[in-house]
Structure formats: structure tokens, C-alpha cells
Amino acid sequence: MNFLRTVTRAAAAGVLVAAQMAGAAQAELAAVGDPKPAIILFGPTNDGGWSQSIDESRVKIESDLGLRIPQVAEIPESATAIRPAAELFIERGANIIIGSAFGYSDTFKELSEEYPDIVFINPAGTTNGPNLKSVYGRTYETQYLCGMVAGGLTKSNKIGFVAANPFGLVNWTVNAYLLGARQVNPDAELNVVFTGAWGDPVKERAATEALIEQGVDVVGQHVDTPTPQIVAAEKGIYATGHHRDLSEFSAATQCSSIWTWDEFLEPEIERISAGAFEAAPYGAFLSISEGAIDIACCGDAVSEELEAKVMAERDAIIAGKQIFAGPLMDRDGTERVAAGAVLDDGALWGMDWFVEGVSGQ
């Protein structure tokens, strides 16, 4: 996924217009009646990660709401592919179109303007409007919790992280992972390797093996395949996953940062059906308490004491604890968050720095 490289700029450019339209949009968008959602997936339904998490939530929503939700998969981030898929669903009666990629953002915006009576929802998107909402999760919360597991399990105090691309929404998972580790192990250090790809098993294997050669004994990830978990099991170390509960692929997996899209989409579909859709100038940016993200924890190697600490921190986050609270220094010694302050959402999306204790690129 070419994902959210321009999110801050896009949000800033559109916020004034969106804010002016939001109130009117909420009042003007009529109830759709019987909801007829349809899903356009970026990847395959069995990718083990991002796309599969959405597909699994589709199955839950169908069961919980008594719906049949048609879906098309492996639709690339190109208007020439997205538009025909969406318009075919609309022709067949769909009144809610759910996407799954940053690269769908512009096309979804155009479609929402052409079809004002259809609601568009785009996980990972950046565009919003009267009948269009993009949504993402505060995954730094869940990676912080899995980082606690890593910090509690490491014997060498060296933990690793396999990541895709070094920009905001990935960097915050790297930083939060180490902050979580240091919550239980102040001596923990983190080495990150960026693969430059969201889902490349060959690069992920090479990155994980390189980290293990450097002495890490727990590895986390923000990439789309379970390869780092599989390599960890092969090499006899522990790991934590992302997107889904990756313990199905590897006995090494002790915690996973997971998407629970049904927890957001079910009530959202019901609101749309009732005419209560709420436009959001910046889209929805969801915490654990709001649904869409959580953790699958914990594996057999995690002690009852460590699990209790993780769950206590989860409760604290739900109650409002901020992960990026000051004082916080970056690895170059620059103060990034002053004492008593917390990072705002714009600073999170634009995060281009790493906390002290993170090495590698």
C-alpha cells in the first residue's frame, strides 16, 4: 500500500472546506434505509495481514447484522480499477461503499461528489466530505502494549523491528514499541530495519535474519505478511505481530497489534442506515476505546505478572493515557515533547524522528 505519505498536507488543505460543509452534510444526508454495503479490497483476502483483517470483519458483520456484503479483492490503487468496481456495486444497489487503501482516496472523493446519496468509507484514506469518511487507528497504542511484551521477554535487552517505510504512521509504531518495552525494561534497545515494501516476504526474511544476527531475541513488525514471525520461530526467538493475530502462523508470536474493523463498521453502518452519519473534517482516528484496534495477547511465554502489567496499561490507555507524553527526547538529543505536553495529531502523522534508544534505518 502506498499509504498516507501526504496525510498531513492533504488534511490541512481540505479542513476549511470540510469544516464548513460538515454540519450541513450531517443534516442533508438522508437515511439509506436497509443498508447495502459493498467492499473494495486492495489486496487478497488471504494475505495474512491488512486485507484479510478487513475480510474477516466482513464475515463478522454479515453474521451480526444479518447482511450479505459483496466484495471484490486485489483492486490496485488506480482510478481505472477503483471506479468500475465501485460503480458496478452502485448499479447493483449498494448504498455504502467501503474501501481499503490510501491510493483510493482521490477516486473515492470524486465518486462521493458524483453519488451524493451513497456513503463512502475508506480505511487508510485521507479524503473526507459530506458522504465520505476516511478512517485509521492509533496503532501506536497497540504497538506500545506489544512492546511491553517484547521488553519483558528479552534476555539480551536487544529487540528488533521490521518495518515497511519510514514515515509517520510507521515511525509511531517503532517509537511506541520501544517506549512500551522500556515501561517494563528500561535497558531495552531497539534496532529497526525498513524493507521499503508493505508486503515482500523475501525482504522481510532478510531483515529479520539480519536483526537476529545482530543479537536481538524478540522482533516486532509493521509489514503485511507474517514472515518475521515465521523466521523468529525458525531461529528460536520470540516475536510480536501486526494487523492480525499472527500466532496462527508461528509459535514465536506472543502478542499482536490487531485490527477489529467490525467494532467500528457495525455501528457506523447502523448509523448510516438511520440517517445519523456524521461527517468528519479529518476523518476518524480511532483509539482502542473506540474500536478498530486492539491486541491479541498473550502467548505461552508471557508470565502472568507481565500479562497483568500489559492489561493494566491497556486499561490506562482506554482511560486516556497518552503514549507520547513529555518529556520525550529523540535519538539525537533534541527535546520533541516538553514536560507536561503531549503530541497532537498533526505531529503524530508527521513524525519523522525516533526516540532515544532506536537505531537503524
From TrEMBL:
The residues covered by the ABC transporter substrate-binding protein PnrA-like domain are 39-318
One GO cellular component, as annotated: plasma membrane
Entry keywords, A to Z: Signal
Q: Which Gene3D superfamilies match?
A: 3.40.50.2300
InterPro entries per the UniProt record, alphabetical:
ABC-Purine-Binding (IPR052910), Peripla_BP_I (IPR028082), PnrA-like (IPR003760)
SUPFAM superfamilies, per the entry: Periplasmic binding protein-like I (SSF53822)
Query: Which parts of the chain are coiled coil?
Result: none
A Pfam family that the UniProt record links to this protein? Bmp
Q: What is this protein called?
A: Purine-binding protein
